Amino acid sequence: KTYKGIGSKKTVILGAHVVSPSAMELLPMEDMPLLDKRDQVIVIEEGVIKDIVPSSEAPFGEEWEVYDVRGAVVIPALTECHTHAIFAGDRAAEFHARIQGETYHDQQKKGGINATVSATRNASDEALLRNLEYWLRVFLRQGVTTLEVKSGYGLNHEQEIRLLRIISEVKQQQQALVEVAPTYLGAHAVPKDAKSRQDYIEEMVMKTMPVVRNENLADFVDVFVASVAYTVEEADFIYNAAHRLGFSLKAHLWELEHDNSWKLLEKYPFVSVDHLDFAQREDLEVVFAKGTVPVLLPLTAWHLSYDIRRTYDLIKDLKGYFAISTDFNPGTSFSPSPWQAITVGHIEFGLPIFELFFASTVYAAKALGLSDRGAILPGNKADLAVLSVPSLDWLGYLHGINPVDMVFKNGSPVQ
Ligand code: NIG
Ligand code: FE
């Protein structure tokens, strides 16, 4: 069959070995079906996948753009659902000291997040913008076309708004390449120059959040709930305001220790809860009962010598699902590589490679509340990555290289 002369922009990708999750529902991981078909043609119209047909039935039109990938594996582009990609400076010295036995907890007292806050406050708008653009390109080259970015290294009204405005500017400028989902994480640490904890919490809730909302500077509000950051009660107060203002909610939970933050899940709807290294079975039962997406961060667990395998086993036992992400940040995960996260998830923690693949695509999109990407299915965005590896089995096995050859965003080649 030949579709002709419709006048709209069409693209076809020929000779694709399509490998993709093939449902958009939040299914238990083990029920997520895999689409694995060689010699397919992906038909794209106006940036959206129209059809996936065998090459023998390939439609052609005269003015179509045609890309022949000659049998290469084509997967949905990846979604990075948890990054702290806007910051200045580095914490290399802390990192190496940690390798020699210092703990992250202790480092938070003298440096830690607040050290990056100082460097970020001292950086110009332009430097922060250029840094973020740089990291965004690094992600794009590896097949990431949707990227969440959290604020959180400003930690006062002016500085957090400044970071979110820079994220917004990059978001506008780069939208044809990578879609940015901004998150307000004012509650990342208690700033050391705050008058008091209570004072800063009130500033976030009364002053900053309404501006973030009015200027539409963030989709999500996130809180780092931990002994080194905010208590469950403080988080409750912050989420209460965020929820009333209409923000979607995310949370850093059970990263460094266990606490009773399941209470927050009972009270507010969370799109995702992230880290979960110290989550208990009962916590995860609430997560799944609420339809929230748990996000595992293998690189952070690896950096901090925690074990996500235990959390993963609980998830599987509960017939649940999960997403993964890099948690890219200068403190606990200085690696802007989704492939590194997959490799570490596989080699260090023993998570199955196809589950890590699903967790980086369809479930990662769900962790941002998105149901129009992350799987090569008709109706989804034509955000695709063409791989240089001959099969998905090679992921995690061949590692330390970027397996992405070409990236399509909304049906256009961008890399
Ligand atoms: O996700 N948990 C809070 N935020 C980061 C660490 C940030 C930092 O150390 O600079 C994380 O691990
Ligand atoms: Fe994080």
Automatic annotation (TrEMBL):
Any one of the GO BP annotations: L-histidine catabolic process to glutamate and formamide
Enzyme Commission code: 3.5.2.7
One CC-aspect GO term: cytoplasm
Gene3D superfamilies found in the cross-reference section: Metal-dependent hydrolases, Urease, subunit C, domain 1
Keywords: Histidine metabolism, Hydrolase, Iron, Metal-binding, Zinc
SUPFAM superfamilies assigned: Composite domain of metallo-dependent hydrolases (SSF51338), Metallo-dependent hydrolases (SSF51556)
Class of this enzyme: hydrolase
GO molecular function terms attached to this record: imidazolonepropionase activity; metal ion binding
Pathways per UniProt: Amino-acid degradation
Span of domain Amidohydrolase-related: 74-413
Entries under InterPro entries matching the protein: Amidohydro-rel (IPR006680), HutI (IPR005920), Metal-dep_hydrolase_composite (IPR011059), Metal_Hydrolase (IPR032466)
A Pfam family matched in the record: Amidohydro_1
Designated name of the protein: Imidazolonepropionase
Organism: Coprothermobacter proteolyticus (strain ATCC 35245 / DSM 5265 / OCM 4 / BT)
Organism placement in taxonomy: Bacteria, Pseudomonadati, Coprothermobacterota, Coprothermobacteria, Coprothermobacterales
This protein's encoding gene: hutI
